[in-house]
Specification:
Layout lengths: L1 H17 L3 E5 L26 E5 L4 E7 L9 H12 L10 E6 L4 H11 L8 E5 L8
Parallel strand pairs: 3-4, 4-5
Antiparallel strand pairs: 1-2, 2-3
Length: about 140
C-alpha cells in the first residue's frame, strides 16, 4: 500500500504543479515538507486532519487541499468522513474563500467515492470538489 500511496501523492503533486499552484507541502516527497494538519472545529473524531498535498492557488487566492484515497474500505471511515468536514470547511483567513479539495483515487473507486461524497457534503461545497482519476492503478487489490 505504501508504494501506491507514494505514487498517488506524486501524481497529485504533478497535477498541482501543472495547475501552477504554489505547493506548500507534500507527504513523502523529499523536496517538500509534510503538510501541516488542519484544525478540526468539532467534526467526527475531533482530530486535526493532514492533507497529502497542500498548496496555494495564487490566481484564485485560495488554498488547495490534496487527498489520496487508495482503498474503498477507507472512503466511509470515521477518519475519512472527518477529513471531508475539516477540508471542505477550510478557508483562506485573509479573504474567506473556501479551499479547493482535490481527491485522487484509483479508477475503480471513483463511482463509489462520488456517491459517498455527493451525499455526505452539502451541494454548496460541490464546486470546490475535484476528483482526479489516478493513472497509477493498485496492483493486487
Amino acid at each position: 500500500m505504501k508504494d501506491m500511496y507514494s505514487a498517488l501523492v506524486e501524481e497529485l503533486l504533478q497535477f498541482f504543479l501543472s495547475e501552477k499552484y504554489t505547493v506548500v507541502g507534500a507527504a513523502d516527497i523529499e523536496q517538500y515538507q509534510h503538510p501541516t494538519a488542519l484544525e478540526n472545529d468539532g467534526y467526527g473524531d475531533q482530530q486535526p486532519k493532514r492533507p497529502d498535498v497542500f498548496a496555494f492557488d495564487e490566481i484564485n487566492k485560495r488554498f488547495v487541499i490534496g487527498v489520496v484515497k487508495i482503498s474503498e474500505d477507507d472512503l466511509e471511515s470515521v477518519h475519512s468522513l472527518t477529513q471531508y468536514d475539516v477540508f471542505f470547511d477550510h478557508k483562506n483567513s485573509a479573504n474567506g474563500k473556501p479551499s479547493r479539495v482535490c481527491f485522487i483515487l484509483p479508477t475503480g473507486s471513483i463511482a463509489q467515492f462520488t456517491g459517498i461524497i455527493t451525499h455526505y457534503i452539502h451541494p454548496d461545497y460541490w464546486e470546490n470538489l475535484t476528483i482526479i482519476r489516478a493513472k497509477t492503478e493498485n496492483q493486487g487489490s
